[in-house]
């Protein structure tokens, strides 16, 4: 039995206020990631089997699941007329409100649930409004808002450490149940210790009706008390987030403050950003204008702090990439055409040089059988005129 943030009291099936009859007709299911009912879920297929809650309050609520194997049941408060309800559903539905009472007197009351069939009737837990609270106008469904942390949320650049990581310290180790990447403890004083190098840290886990309070200490600071209680299960919620820390080594400890559930799914931390030494500028061969001795200035190294930018390029970077891509495409097209023209010219030149060249010789004058012409001179002498022969060469077509 434990209280919610509004003062309501949650009663599990393990509490002495709850009675099952006959006891051998009721079955309890163990805890598991797929069936998150522990330590309270109980069911019976026996017709006439009952579950009862004794409480002192003005409102009472009955929660369980719905399935295709479930059937009809009666709900009765004290000696009032019973109300017939059903938890049958063609599709499975997790824990939900199956019954809310009218406003009751500030006295002790008994809520009785009776199975009317041979189908299943189940009980997850009960909630009641104690008599010391003001009587409400009606018994509305109580609800608990999720934890509201005024901290910056983790980002995709941060590092996640799952519950099964070997770097986490669980104490006492035998008080923790493990389900793959999820761990759970119902022991008061059970703790988790996480050491990291970073500037921020977050603790995430589920919330549920059987969860309670836990405390957080960071580097030995005063504890901060929070809760993972919720009337319905909420998986992987940020239950704690640190303020900005100085870069370095830090230790986060989580302690269970109740004998109720406290789970762990992940720790998330923002790693330290190492200082990067920028390359020194080259030494100048010119004398320094500020030096009276004319010596060269001595280069010094700079420490540049590199911070993650959330993985997004600036607008200038996008424009530069686009211009570079377009220029590269144009240059590639130009080179392609130049290479193509050079190859074509080289191929034509090779063809021309491989064709055989056979000149044909012939004379303008056929001199065979011809006598050279003679001409007379005034002296009466004759002289044979020299006939020149001209040969012309033509290439084959």
Overall residue-averaged pLDDT value: 77
Secondary-structure class = mainly beta
* CATH topology name of the domain at 2-130: Jelly Rolls
Give a count of the beta strands, DSSP E runs of length 2 or more.
Answer: 29
Taken as a percent bin, the fraction of beta residues is 35-45%
Biggest sheet layout: 9 strands, antiparallel
* Helical coverage, percent range: 10-25%
Write the CATH architecture name of the domain at 2-130. Answer: Sandwich
CATH class of the domain at 2-130: Mainly Beta
State the shape. elongated
Question: What is the count of DSSP helices, taking H or I runs of 4+ residues?
Answer: 1
* CATH superfamily heading of the domain at 2-130: Galactose-binding domain-like
What is the H/E string? EEEEEEEEEEEEEEEEEEEEEEEEEHEEEE
Q: How far is it from the N-terminal to the C-terminal residue, by CA?
A: 115 Å
Radius of gyration: 48 Å
Poorly predicted sequence stretches spanning 5 or more consecutive residues: 1-5, 31-38, 275-311, 357-370, 372-379, 381-393
SSE layout and pairing:
Blueprint: E1 2-3, E2 9-12, E3 18-21, E4 27-28, E5 42-44, E6 50-66, E7 72-77, E8 83-86, E9 93-100, E10 107-115, E11 121-123, E12 125-130, E13 159-162, E14 169-171, E15 177-179, E16 182-185, E17 191-207, E18 213-218, E19 224-227, E20 234-241, E21 248-256, E22 262-264, E23 266-271, E24 275-278, E25 302-305, H1 315-354, E26 360-363, E27 374-376, E28 382-384, E29 391-394
């Amino acid at each position: 039995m434990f209280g919610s943030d509004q003062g309501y009291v949650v009663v599990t099936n393990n509490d002495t206020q709850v009675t099952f009859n006959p006891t051998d007709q009721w079955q309890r299911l163990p805890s598991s990631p797929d069936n998150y009912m522990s330590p309270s879920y109980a069911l019976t297929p026996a017709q006439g089997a009952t579950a009862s809650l004794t409480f002192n309050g003005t409102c009472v609520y009955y929660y369980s699941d719905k399935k295709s194997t479930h059937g009809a049941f009666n709900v009765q408060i004290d000696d009032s007329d019973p109300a017939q309800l059903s938890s049958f559903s063609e599709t499975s539905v997790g824990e939900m409100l199956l019954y809310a009472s009218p406003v009751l007197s500030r006295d002790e009351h008994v809520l009785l649930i009776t199975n009317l069939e041979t189908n299943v009737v189940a009980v997850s837990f009960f909630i009641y409004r104690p008599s010391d609270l003001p009587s409400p106008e009606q018994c509305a469904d109580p609800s608990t808002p999720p934890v509201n942390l005024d901290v910056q949320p983790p980002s995709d650049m941060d590092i996640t450490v799952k519950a099964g990581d070997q770097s986490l310290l669980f104490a006492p180790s035998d008080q923790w149940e493990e389900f793959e990447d999820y761990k759970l403890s119902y022991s008061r004083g059970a703790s988790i210790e996480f050491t990291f190098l970073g500037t921020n840290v977050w603790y995430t886990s589920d919330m549920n009706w059987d969860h309670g309070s836990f405390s957080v200490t960071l580097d030995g600071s005063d504890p901060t008390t929070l809760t993972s209680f919720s009337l319905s299960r909420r998986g992987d919620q940020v239950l704690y987030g640190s303020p900005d820390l100085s870069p370095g080594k830090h230790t986060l400890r989580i302690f269970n403050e109740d004998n109720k559930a406290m789970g762990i799914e992940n720790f998330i931390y923002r790693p330290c950003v190492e200082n990067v030494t920028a390359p020194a500028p080259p030494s100048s061969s010119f004398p320094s204008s500020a030096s009276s001795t004319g010596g060269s200035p001595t280069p010094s190294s700079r420490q540049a702090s590199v911070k993650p930018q959330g993985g997004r390029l600036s607008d200038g970077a996008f424009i530069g990439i686009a211009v570079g891509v377009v220029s590269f495409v144009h240059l590639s097209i130009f080179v392609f055409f130049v290479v193509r023209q050079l190859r074509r010219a080289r191929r034509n030149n090779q063809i021309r040089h491989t064709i055989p060249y056979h000149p044909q010789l012939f004379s303008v004058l056929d001199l065979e059988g011809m006598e050279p012409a003679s001409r007379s001179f005034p002296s009466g002498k004759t002289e044979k005129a020299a006939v020149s022969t001209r040969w012309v060469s033509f290439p084959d077509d």
